[in-house]
Specification:
The complex is a heterodimer.
Chain A (H helix, E strand, L loop, with lengths): L5 H7 L2 H13 L4 E4 L6 H6 L3 E4 L8 H4 L9 H11 L17 E5 L3 H10 L5 E4 L8 H22 L5 H23 L10 H8 L7 H16 L10 E6 L8 H8 L3 E6 L17 H10 L10 H13 L4 E7 L3 H17 L3 E6 L6 H15 L1
Parallel strand pairs in A: 1-2, 1-3, 3-4, 5-6, 5-7, 7-8
Helix pairs in contact in A: 1-10, 5-6, 7-12, 8-10, 11-15
Chain B lengths: L1 E7 L3 E8 L2 E9 L4 H16 L8 E5 L11 E2 L2 H12 L5 E5 L4 E7 L2 E8 L7 H11 L3 H9 L12 H13 L4 H23 L5 E4 L6 H11 L3 E3 L6 H11 L1
Helix pairs in contact in B: 2-8, 3-5, 3-6, 4-6, 4-7, 6-7
Classes of the chains: A alpha/beta, B alpha/beta.
């Protein structure tokens, strides 16, 4: 068992103080942007002196509200997010209050379900969709994406009335790179055997990355790293598990809990609530908009084609973190990650790394079934 | 050394008593709502059949979906590991297992009794014993007869629904269109065989495959599966006990 970290309590309990902070900011005229994806560069939002909160839903409660509008057979993250945003409170379902304190949503066209959901969201909150070129390695892609980021920058200037200067962008790039570097430091502490912090603890940190303000998040990270560095590793080896696949949005800890309560320890997550969010830094020596375009277009999301970058990244991470087995985690109806599973499995097989595939949603109905697979996988690895 | 393995499955509870790697007694009882009492009954039965006193048992290991409810067990293991060990004990050259049980189906790849990969279908009843139970009812034949009936078919009907509920309505519509009973039965079993064969290919099994679980008792299914896979399958005289056997073996080792 890893020890209890006090700074983690602070991160976990930061919800209310963050809401108060946003409410205060709005009182003095600051604009709040809601986002649902890593492809939307925070740097541009902060450079316009706006604030942002992530709107991705990880709770099951609001799924039924969404199903009044959306088909059943789409991903639970899309349904949960939509349900939280449109929840008027009359349903008797409680949803997070930060969904009601945003001025606009900056969305992106990653998967079809999100893209179409955003069209419906536009009826509730002004919603802007950032258009992503989906062949990131083609020569035209970066040019187009740069144009899209410039249009997004104009939009932020219009929303806030503030000019987004290169100087301000550079400052934000530097600040967010510092967070990325801190996350690298935190992840380095998981490379030991046994790791110094559990995967469940890390997940709770990662779920707050795009919710808290960068300043608050940085401060929490620094204290946490200080605490984790003091840990004496005196517990037994457990199978070292990499999670690869879909994000685990705030409120969704189901599969990580199952893995770590059944003998495994998660030491790295190749996901949006893991390495994809911070692995690459933004080049601080280039024109800031070009540097942002280059960094963000390379996020290895399954909406991109081809996405071999992701396979390479998984193999590198497996090697770097000395992974015993990979749990390929997907949400139901997430076609991108579900289809890429085949390629990942082939690559891992070649590398001699066992993989367990888990496709699930936010309900609790399959906990025992997943538990059985995880039990068998742990027995296989030990 | 005397060990007992108990497999608490969704439909039946199995127990195997081993004396130094030799099967002395085995029991198969229906699983009741109270999983623990079904397990206790199976345990008592193997003890009585073997004529061994409880105090002489060195260890009890539990497996199966109800394994965590078996409070008197010393340890639990997953049925995937258990089947792998049990089958290896009986057929050392086997490198793959198909297990079709009451509520799920599994395909396991093994090497020397160790699991190297596995796939499970437990999200719906397609390709499980439940599917057969429902559709046998729609055909008005006892489930034990379904396989034999299917073997009499010359032209199996095509059943395209994977969903148990819809397959039942498909059966009803085939019946209304005048299809023969044996052809519908064959169509149903073919659809299970196809479903399981996909999993077998995904795991990459080719030959030396054992077929276990309650559904393996159904003669027709084995024939259809063998046809679908292009290889013969090992079926034990008592295909339901390999999980319990594996648990008992795990206890010894």
């Amino acid at each position: 068992m890893t020890p209890h970290f006090e700074s983690l309590d602070h991160i976990k309990n930061s919800y209310n103080s963050r809401i108060c902070q946003i409410a205060q900011e709005r009182k003095v005229g600051k604009k709040i942007v809601g986002t649902l994806c890593l492809f939307v560069p925070d740097e541009i939002i902060f450079a316009a002196d706006a604030d942002r909160v992530i709107l991705c839903g990880g709770k099951n409660d609001t799924v039924s509200i969404a199903e009044q509008y959306l088909p059943r057979n789409i991903c639970p993250l899309v349904k949960s997010s939509f349900g939280s945003i449109v929840n008027d409170g009359c349903s008797g379902v409680k949803s997070c209050s930060h969904f009601s304190v945003i001025d606009m949503i900056v969305a992106e066209n990653t998967c079809d379900s999100k893209k179409k959901m955003y069209e419906l969201l536009g009826d509730y909150i002004p919603t802007y969709v950032l258009d992503l070129p989906q062949k990131p390695d083609s020569s035209e892609a970066i040019k187009y994406f740069l144009g899209e980021l410039n249009r997004f920058k104009d939009l932020m200037e219009q929303l806030t009335g503030n000019k987004v200067t290169d100087e301000r962008l550079k400052k934000e790039i530097k600040s967010l790179n510092e967070i990325r570097q801190l996350l690298h430091r935190l992840y380095d502490l998981r490379k030991t055997d046994p790791p110094l912090i559990s995967g469940l603890d890390i997940l709770k940190v990662m779920q707050k990355q795009y919710f808290l303000s960068p300043g608050e998040f940085k401060k929490s990270l620094l204290t946490l790293i200080g605490e984790v560095e003091q840990v004496k590793e005196d517990w037994q080896h457990k199978p070292r598990i990499m999670i690869s696949g879909c994000p685990m949005a705030g409120g969704n800890t189901k599969v990580s809990e199952i893995i770590e309560s059944r003998g495994g320890v998660i030491i790295v997550e190749e996901s949006c609530t893991g390495t994809r969010s911070f692995w690459d830094l933004v080049d601080e020596n280039k024109d800031p908009m070009i540097a942002l375009a280059e960094r963000y277009i390379k996020i290895p999301c399954s909406c991109m084609t081809p996405n071999d970058r992701r396979i390479d990244n998984i193999l590198e991470l497996a090697n770097e973190f000395k992974v015993d087995g990979v749990v390929y985690y997907t949400l139901q109806f997430c076609h991108g990650y579900n289809i890429e599973k085949y390629k990942v499995q082939q690559a891992l097989k070649k590398a001699g790394i066992p993989m367990l595939s888990i496709e699930t949603d936010y309900s609790v109905s399959d906990i025992e079934q997943i538990g059985l697979r995880v039990d068998a996988f742990m027995e296989m690895l030990s | 050394m005397i060990s007992v393995g108990i497999d608490s499955g969704s439909a039946t509870t199995k127990a195997v008593l081993l004396n130094s790697n030799k099967i002395v007694a085995s029991a198969i009882l229906p699983t009741t709502f109270d999983l623990l009492s079904a397990a206790e009954n199976a345990y008592t039965k193997v003890l009585a059949d073997a004529g061994i006193d409880k105090d002489c048992v060195n260890g009890v290991y539990a497996t199966g979906y109800g394994r965590n409810s078996i409070k008197f067990a010393d340890k639990t293991i997953s049925e995937i590991t258990a089947h792998s060990m049990g089958v290896y004990h009986l057929y050392p050259n086997v490198n793959g297992i198909i297990d079709i049980g009451g509520q799920d189906s599994k395909v396991i790849s093994t090497n020397g009794g160790r699991v190297t990969d596995f796939l499970m279908n437990d999200k719906c009843a397609a390709g499980t014993g439940k599917f057969l139970e429902y559709t046998a009812k729609a055909l008005e034949v006892p489930i034990e007869e379904l396989g034999r009936l299917a073997l009499a078919s010359k032209e199996p009907a095509s059943i395209t629904s994977m969903c148990t509920v819809f397959a039942e309505s498909e059966v009803i519509s085939l019946r209304a269109r005048g299809f023969k009973k044996e052809d519908i039965a064959a169509g149903l079993i073919e659809s299970i065989a196809r479903r399981v064969a996909i999993m077998v290919r995904q795991v990459g099994l080719k030959q030396n495959i054992a077929f276990v679980g309650g559904v393996a008792k159904n003669a027709g299914i084995k024939v259809f599966l063998e046809k679908e896979l292009g290889t013969s399958l090992y079926v034990l005289p008592e295909p339901q006990i390999t999980g319990a056997l594996g648990a008992a073996l795990y206890c010894i080792n």
